[in-house]
Design a protein that fits this description.
By secondary structure, the chain is an alpha+beta fold. It has helices at 14-29, 73-81, 90-97, 99-106, 134-140, 164-174, 231-243, 273-279, 283-296, and strands spanning 2-7, 33-38, 44-47, 50-53, 65-69, 86-87, 116-118, 145-149, 158-161, 179-183, 191-198, 201-209, 223-226, 248-255, 261-267.
Length: 297
Amino acid sequence: MYGWLVVNHFLRPEKFDLLYSWLESAAEKRGHRLVRLTNAQAMFTITNGKFQPNLSLEYEPNPDYVIFWDKDVGLARMLESRGLRLFNKAESIAVCDDKSLTHICLANKGIRMPKTIIAPMTFSNIGYNDYSFLETITNEIDFPIVVKECHGSFGQQVYLAKDKEQLIGIVRNIDHKPMLFQELISSSWGKDIRINVVGGKPVASMLRYSDSDFRSNISNGGRMQDYKPTEAQLDLAIKACEALSLDFAGVDILFGENDQPILCEVNSGPQFKSTYDCTGVNVADFIIDHISREMRR
């Protein structure tokens, strides 16, 4: 089989290159030819109402499948419009990339999540010139309140407001960008679980924890250890991936009271180097095996 691995042209940390090379190696071991393209190389032109690939590039334009390891949803949708099979699908990536859409799509699906209120939309040239809507937030959610930008990774766009003054300050700094407000799950302060799910099955899990921050992200200084999830935690991770039609994902789960699992986030393109360092499991092998099975159907 011949596939594309589409990655972001402008995001080039070493750990991402390592992840991409693991996917390429896993594909090669299984007899696939996986060609890496950036979203800049894979641009399309719309001519007379039809998509045409950038013909100046030297690659075969009709792969059997595409591993879409980017958040360029517009490009993903163009590729799907040409009949290509994407892992993950464009809509699944879009929903996971926007935390507000994730919570909306998972509501009423039997998946417990923190109490969440999505901020009203404003415009880039206006911002929030009236903060009275925050009264609704503080009436529904007790301090401290978690504030999240709807688009963000590695915990870097997640904040904690201890009082009304801090809340206004955080909202003012975020400005017009989409955000949401959540209750703090105090029983999960500084710790959560990352469960990697591929093809509807959990393949690797780890506990992430921090002694100095309410966030547990490894990139923020958190630590990790191998972890055996409970059946309830595994069930929650699998249900979330099924509801979002994900081929693979990293599901982050909080510890509720009595360790009751609470969904935090779902990542459609999880950085699994930390998972490998912690567990010795290379998620790339499971992803390529899943793609092989799906393409043979």
